Each structure stands twice: as C-alpha cells, then as structure tokens.
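Proteins fold reproducibly. Consider a sample protein:
=====
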Amino acid sequence: MAIEGSKQQVLEFLRRHRGEYISGEDLSRDLAISRTAVWKHIQSLRQEGYRIDAQTRRGYCLLATPDCFYPEEVTAGLETAWLGRTLYYYDEVGSTNQVAKELADDGAPEGTVIVAECQTGGRGRRGRSWISPARKGIWFSVILRPRVAPAQAPQLTLLAAVAVVAAVRERTGLPLGIKWPNDLLAGGRKVCGILTEIKAEIDAVEYIVLGIGLNANLEAGDFSPEVSPQATSLYLELGRPVERLPLFQRILSCLEKWYERWQDEGFAPVREAWKEASITLG
C-alpha cells in the first residue's frame, strides 16, 4: 500500500516536523493543495493508524506512526544501502515467496523485498503450512542474485538464520538458537522459519528467494493444538509485545551486512557465527 502523491507529501511534512503543530494553512500553502484536501488526507492517515492530533489555531501534529510495514514507514528508518529499497507491501497475500518468484522471473532487482501483514498460504519446509495471522508476525521474502555456484546456495539459509539471531538479540535481548537447517528456537520452541527457493542453471544461480517467517506477537491461542507444543513467539517468551517495524528494519540491515560479507569473504565467517548460535552441533 503505497500512499498516493499529495497524501504522502502531507505525511512527510508532518514527519519532518514531528512533535510540532503545523497549521492547515501552512500545509496547504507549502504543498500547493487545498485545505479541504489537507483535511481529507489527515482523516485518511488516521484511518491507517497514524496518530495525528488536531488543535484549533495550532494545526496538526504527528504523535505516532503505526507498527506496520507500509513502504513509507519501512524506508523512513531503513539503514540498508540496497536491500529493501524496492519493497512491495500487501495487507494479505497467499505466499510472499510465490509473489517473489513471479517478480524475480520478471527481472526484479536484487534486494527486492515482499512483505505482508497476513499470509493465507504461508509455507514451510516440505510444503508444510505456516501460520501467518494478520499484524502479529513478520512475514517477508527477499529476491537475491548471488554470485555463487548452485551447490553453495544452501549456505544462504544459514546466513539468514545468523542475521535474524543478531537482529532479535539487538532489538529485544532475547537469545535464539539455530536448529539445523532452517529453524530458530526460543525456549526450545520454534519462533522463526526460513525457506529458500532457487532457480538456477547447471553452473549459475539465476535467483534465490529467501522467505522468513518470524512469530513476533502471536499469542498462545493463535497456534493450532497440533502446533502449539512446538511453537512460540517473541511476545510469549518476553512477556511483552515487540515493535515489529524497527525489528524488521534491523533484520534487513543484518541480512544485507551478512550477505555482502558472504559474497566478499565466502562462507567461513557465516559458519563461525552459525556455530556460536547452533543448538544442534555436538
């Protein structure tokens, strides 16, 4: 959901003056739109979750932004150079990996990210379903075009695990363990899954779609009885909800850092970091 033209301008103006009151007259004049248009955009932004206060003779003030993955919010605080700079957002999608594969086949650039609030057909390894309820997790896929032989492609799964472990620890303090080959555990239960899908020739990778599903704020009742004994969430482990947006941004930053290091230095640094977090070695 990209915010259209003049509404995006209103949001960016308020963001630049966050915590300050800006009159409707100033917004109208500086953005060259009518005061009626300003008012309508403010109402629309409020409906999307932006907390905007309005006071007579003072104007409008942006108090808080929603904990969501609107492209404008993701890119506003993103520290990456290229990963996530092209981003597709969906309220609901069957599978972010499926969308990513279609985009990759159409030539989408490396670093393109597809993120959804809800997946109706999320998949794990071996085609198993992945519970992806709305606004409670971080469900996304990344298109990558690494300079590696197809035989090296599985290394990307471990690289992604290392990146998520680092990001979660930095943002929440919670240590995660990596269970071979693609599960991350917290308190002995699965909190994150990674699914990589590759398109390659005999000697070259065309692209890899890296899918990550992280249970951020799921509650016990969100899991089916069959899954519940083996699954958990950051919320359940920490006893408090986590802000998904800054965590998502941090995951993208860590992923870019580790991916570039893998491309420049090979698998050795990734292997060492994976060993430190692995709960299946030895």
User: Anything to note?
Assistant: The longest strand covers residues 189-200. Residues 244-265 form the longest helix (22 residues).
